[in-house]
Amino acid sequence: MRVVVIGTGYVGLVTGACLSDFGLFVTCVDIDAEKIALLKRGEIPIYEPGLKEIVEKNQKSKRLFFEVKGEKSISEANVVFLAVGTPSRDDGSAEMKYVFSAVETFSKNHKSYQVLVTKSTVPVGTGKKIEDYLSKYHSKDTFAVASNPEFLREGCAVSDFMNPDRIVIGCDDPKGLKVLLDLYEPMRKANAPIITTNRTSAELIKYASNAFLSVKISFINEMARLAEKCGADVSKIAEGMGMDKRIGKAFLLPGPGYGGSCFPKDTKALLSTANEYNCKLKVVEAAVEANEDQVNFVVEKILSNLSEKKEEAKVALLGLAFKGGTDDVRESPALKVARRLLKVGCEIKAYDPEASVNAIKEVENLVICNSAKECAEGCDVLVIATEWNEFKTLDLKEIKGVMKNAVIVDLRNLLDPFHAKEIGFKYDCIGKRI
Ligand code: UDX
Predict the structure, then answer these.
(1) Which helix (H) or strand (E) covers residue 140, if one does?
(2) Which residues of the chain form CATH 3.40.50.720?
(3) pLDDT at position 149, please?
(4) From CA 75, how far away is CA 110, in angstroms rounded?
(5) Is it the case that residue 308 has pLDDT exceeding 80?
(6) Do 130 and 116 contact (CB within 8 A), yes or no?
(7) Is-catalytic flag, 429?
């Protein structure tokens, strides 16, 4: 089985590397020549635990290759995955020009029977559009267009790929379905559940999953707001709800709102698709709105914890990535908070173990520090915005010693409130009165 993956971002690179680890011959193709040169040297352009090791291993075993144009590889492949970006347009719909440019490349190099698979999240109906385009140039019995969405979380994408909750294959062509089932046979043997369905359902499963998870987060964030008002504890609420198997424990952590490259973009793209079909998705709409409100809520919380002139306050911001374990700052709530505080006039010192370089490109007025202690020095408030493990074990005595005012606003409920208070901090967090 020969495979080509077009696009070497998070999704493409992880997919290509992991498939080669399952014994397939994989060529990853990207128009970015610099990126390909880097990958050929075994350097990984993104921070993703475990990825470097499997890329190196499979390059050495001559099962994983990187190419800029990849024409020959595409023409010889049994399966071609599309893993290029689909960024949000201003109206919330997905930008499809990269997908269609990759489809064009596929079309130009297509010879014998091949399966073209959308891996990155594409709007419902994209498979049909691709099929209609290819049918103009090629006989319909020489190709199949399938949907095989990814469910990888950044920071644990390799283990998510290797141990998936499910593999979804949507293909309306029985021959194409057979090829994809053969491709995933090693993973099925390793106990990965496979669900097969029609292409449109597969496309929608991806959006429905991300939208549902976004709803879960917005729901618990709203419960947190109510809990603070009425004197309940959101952590206990989440625990009590999560013990019900029908609800489940995951994705009930309150915080500054969801961010990242998927949830904000995919919820809006789903609303845009629903709009096209004249179908109102009130629950998803509310989740998006609640997520936007959550940033207002946490900014107000930080400001209300500042005793002196708010416009002159010095804020220590711990965490810039959209979540712990990644250098990704796309739609990061930490940066949204930073922008809002800068607008008020606050000075912001910031520290993140991995994401500072990316963050400073987005918000230039941040004063970047090399440690949590350096960040806290002379500040009026310490804000924890990203759930990095190293923030859980901060030396609070040392931090208090260097701050101007001993105030912590913990937007991820990471610290032990009683320990923080014992040390002498004024401590505030999400969804409980301390
Ligand atoms: C997500 C999906 O989980 C994945 O299946 C999909 O393929 C891509 O999008 P990712 O964006 O890497 O993955 O991050 P995820 O771990 O899901 O977190 C998304 C956001 O939700 C983060 O900002 C995170 O901090 C937030 N979150 C998550 C919460 O606020 N509370 C939670 O309980 C869980």
Answers:
(1) none
(2) 2-197, 198-434
(3) 97
(4) 5
(5) no
(6) yes
(7) no
**Catalytic one among 262, 346, 369, 429?**
262
The one-letter amino acid code at 399 reads I
Give 349's Cβ-side CA count (13 Å radius). 19
Q: Are 404 and 378 in contact (CB under 8 A)?
A: yes
108 CA distance to ligand 1 middle (Å): 37
Q: Enter the CATH code of domain 2-197.
A: 3.40.50.720
Closest atom of ligand 1 to 153 CA is 12
* Structure confidence at residue 93 (pLDDT): 81
**Ligand 1 contacts CB of residue 287 (under 6 A):** no
Q: Which CATH superfamily hosts domain 198-434?
A: NAD(P)-binding Rossmann-like Domain (3.40.50.720)
Half-sphere exposure of 370 (CA within 13 A, CB side): 0
Ligand 1 binding pocket mutation candidate from 323, 331, 387, 430 (most atoms within 8 A of CB): 323
Helices (H) and strands (E) in the chain — how many of each?
Answer: 19, 14
Is residue 262 in contact with ligand 1, taking CB distance under 6 Å? yes
pLDDT above 80: residue 21: yes
Could you tell me if the CB of 255 is within 6 A of ligand 1?
A: yes
Query: How do residues 155-171 score in pLDDT, each as one tens digit?
Result: 899 999 999 999 999 99
Question: What pLDDT does 434 receive?
Answer: 86
From the list 314, 308, 304, the residue with the least C-alpha distance to 374 is: 314
Q: Cα(303)–Cα(320) distance, rounded to whole angstroms?
A: 19
The protein residue whose alpha carbon is closest to atom 34 in ligand 1 is 251
Kindly report the CA angle at 124 between 222 and 175, in degrees rounded to 5?
Answer: 135
Q: How far is the CA of 258 from the centre of ligand 1 (A)?
A: 7
